[in-house]
Specification:
- 2 copies of one chain form a homodimer.
- Chain A is globular.
- In chain A, helix 6 crosses helix 8.
- In chain A, about 50% of the residues are buried.
- The two termini of chain A are about 40 Å apart.
- Chain A folds into 2 domains: about 1-230, no CATH class; about 320-430, no CATH class.
- Chain A has 20 helices and 2 strands.
- Chain A is about 65% helix and about 0% strand.
- By secondary structure, chain A is mainly α.
- The first copy, chain A, has a two-stranded antiparallel ribbon.
- The interface of A and B includes residues 302, 328, 337, 359 and 384 of A.
- The complex binds potassium ion (2 copies).
- One potassium ion binds near residues 62 and 286 of chain B.
- Chains A, B: Keywords: Cell membrane, Ion transport, Membrane, Transmembrane, Transmembrane helix, Transport.
């Protein structure tokens, strides 16, 4: 019997296994979040709302159908923080860690699974990579927890409250979870630039991509003579440049579009921090220092476009990912110049990677458009609010113009599916129903990670 | 002096020349439509409205800022019909025809120009092609004129009126011009299925692509023994299949989405004809048997998506074109199956064609999204109405939810640019600013025409 189930598992492709693992995580999260122990006394949650919260947490999106602070008990908040951690770092990373701790041998098959989950194209160093990711993220979170918790002492009556807030805020920001237990995101800290700065740094650590963090860490800890021989990978260069260009673009556009509206009575530093924070949060963070529904429609649509692009691959974020966006734009520009081969930073881009980027982008446009039209049928909200909600779910961002709790059941199911697709990536989603082919896993070394 | 200007002309790429020719046509149309002789007495038109009408006619879009029947004199209506004819069949086709009539020798350079305008990839038979196009379109229009004019005798008081209506209706339908002189499109004929049927046939003749018409004509006129050796080109198969699949898809979706709304009190044949006509008209026709603003928001968004796709290449229509859409979808499906090479109808698609299709689609998504966001800044209409207007202009369709006359000047300029890009094609637009390279015009024979 056990033998048979093993053979059934072996017939699945790595992508199918990843999807099954994420689905199992959703199931586990649903059970934990559905426990009466997780709710405040007197609160009852409908099944769809429990599933919604579970998927939102596993996919580190942060869209909420119920106010977290008023609905969940302290135990429930810990459960959500745990699920965010689980979803954010990736089930496979944590799974590998457990295997290592338990002294299990990591075979080729397990390595391949991890490879797929982290979008890596080579087997080598996978286990080392996972260890590094875990160490890095936990270190970042610990520092965030200590800094924020200590700083929050001035805001809260007891040290327990302050460090509890710091604990949750650090995890929610670093995993880009987007959940809050303040009841109104970061609006209570709209004038506290220190809190905002720490949050921006933590969000960027989560959204910029684990391989980038690891390369930067290796560079920083290397000896001076070693550094001369080190070079950053093509992936790190492309994704980091794109990431920061998008942040700058978002900041400038939000500032310009709101200059006469939301920013009309604001000081220069308020305009800077509001624009910068809301630009960074569209990469995947989902926390906000203001009620984004106060922005004009045009700003909300630009933010939707930014959320559609999303964060870096191999990060806690979703969307089509920065590399897909960069490759597709560079492809169009190269084509317009009448050139055939695509070069970035003196390297030629592999045709397979370009194809992946194009497929991801086209599939994403179709998925998002179809979802928007479906929601115009089932919901009665203005189109802008629906587009914002759909791109926020697909980008696993978690910002909302406020319609999430009032969605119909079909609307909630649609958003649940979008968050799930956003997390596993649209390519994985596409390959879920595909039979595995042998020999697909040997590629040359200098490749770019796509969506 | 003359020599110098010739050298300047020779330095331009074919695409640049085509754009200059179309721009000249807009200039000529602007002058003609701006003539007081073209207006009814007492009517004064602003400059931007004259330019808008001129571009709308040259690009055979049919969006109008002023009601055609109430604004233009009989002379003005003839001018518009003339400009529609000019724009619809293509300036180069008419230009070649004039060259032929004037006994001019058609050299390689001129052939190449025509080639670019008609999206053809080989020089051979270009002149013959243009002659065939002109003969075909004029024959179709003549038959349309006679049939409609004669049939209209029952609707109008005098035979002059009936045949004048028939003349304009036949040109407007065949060129997919979308203009009407009834004052309310085809709504007066909403119960006359004969008029609707003739219009649908004429619209399809214009939108299905000239090469398709010519191949079908050759096939029909061939002897039985010749037919056995004839085969339709890959282009004809792909574009025709896609065209009709889109028509069927549109009909079914409109019928389903409006079943409980606009169609709630309609009989089955009304539902069929309303759905079918509005589906066909989104290919590029622009005429309508109803006020499309009576449809639900979801139907309007589906129609926007259909208008974004548009008509066949080398037709009077715009959009990303049926071939781009088909190739991109087939590319995604092929990729999802893990295959490398793209096969349609037993032929392999050339990689260059696929690249073109992808670039067209990506560029179109960016152009349309940017225009929509720009219009949300300058206009105060609901987002759905703006999306509908923008895709209608880009697809040179000409349907509107009624906001065209009330657009701001920036809004009108945006729509003007979109109609122009829609007509010349987004690839031509992309290459307008590119210097020509030698040796770009030799391709293998079995190619597909893209966008
Ligand atoms: K998030
Ligand atoms: K039209």
């Amino acid at each position: 019997m056990r033998h048979r189930s093993y053979r059934w598992l072996n017939a699945l492709s790595p992508v199918q296994l990843i999807v099954i693992f994420y689905a199992s995580a959703v199931l586990l999260a649903t059970i934990l979040i559905g426990l009466p122990l997780s709710h405040q006394s007197g609160v009852t949650l409908s099944f769809i709302d429990v599933v919604f919260t579970a998927v939102s947490a596993v996919s580190v999106t942060g869209l909420t159908v119920v106010p977290t602070a008023d609905t969940f008990s302290t135990f429930g908040v810990f459960v959500i923080a745990f699920v965010l951690q689980f979803g954010g770092i990736g089930i496979m990373a944590i799974g590998t860690f457990i295997w290592i701790v338990l002294g299990k041998k990591i075979g080729l098959r397990e390595r391949r699974l991890i490879m797929t989950d982290q979008n890596q194209t080579t087997f080598q160093g996978m286990v080392k990579l996972i260890k590094q990711i875990l160490a890095l993220i936990l270190t970042i979170e610990l520092i965030g927890f200590l800094v924020l918790g200590t700083y929050f002492l001035q805001y809260y009556d007891s040290w327990q409250q302050a460090y509890f807030q710091g604990f949750f805020a650090s995890i929610s920001a670093t995993t880009n979870g987007g959940f809050d237990i303040t009841g109104q995101s970061l609006i209570p800290f709209k004038d506290d630039y220190f809190v905002q700065f720490i949050h921006m740094v933590l969000i960027m650590f989560g959204a910029i991509g684990f391989p980038v963090l690891i390369e930067v860490r290796e560079y920083l800890f290397a000896k001076t003579e070693e550094r001369r021989f080190m070079r950053f990978s093509l992936f790190t260069k492309v994704t980091t440049l794109t990431f920061f260009l998008l942040v700058i673009f978002g900041t400038v556009v939000i500032a310009l579009l709101e200059f006469q509206y939301f920013f009309a009575d604001k000081k220069w530093h308020e305009i800077l921090f509001y624009s910068l924070f809301q630009s960074i949060t569209t990469r995947s963070g989902g926390l906000s220092t203001m009620d984004v529904s106060q922005f004009t429609e045009q700003t909300e649509l630009v933010m939707s476009a930014l959320m559609f692009i999303g964060a870096s691959p191999s990060s806690v974020g979703g969307g089509i990912r920065t590399t897909s966006f960069a490759l597709v734009i560079i492809f169009v520009l190269t084509f317009a110049r009448g050139q055939q081969r695509i070069h970035i930073f003196g390297r030629e881009v592999h045709n397979d990677d370009l194809n992946k980027a194009v497929v991801v982008t086209i599939m994403a446009v179709i998925t998002v458009s179809t979802s928007v039209i479906l929601l115009t049928i089932t919901e009665s909200f203005p189109l802008t609010e629906i587009i914002f909600e759909v791109t926020s779910a697909f980008g696993t961002v978690g910002l909302s113009l406020g319609i999430t709790p009032d969605l119909s059941t079909i609307g909630k199911v649609t958003i649940i599916i979008l968050m799930f697709i956003g997390r596993i990536g649209i390519l994985s989603f596409l390959f879920t129903f595909k039979k595995e082919k042998k020999g697909n896993y040997h590629y040359p070394t200098e490749r770019i990670i796509i969506g």
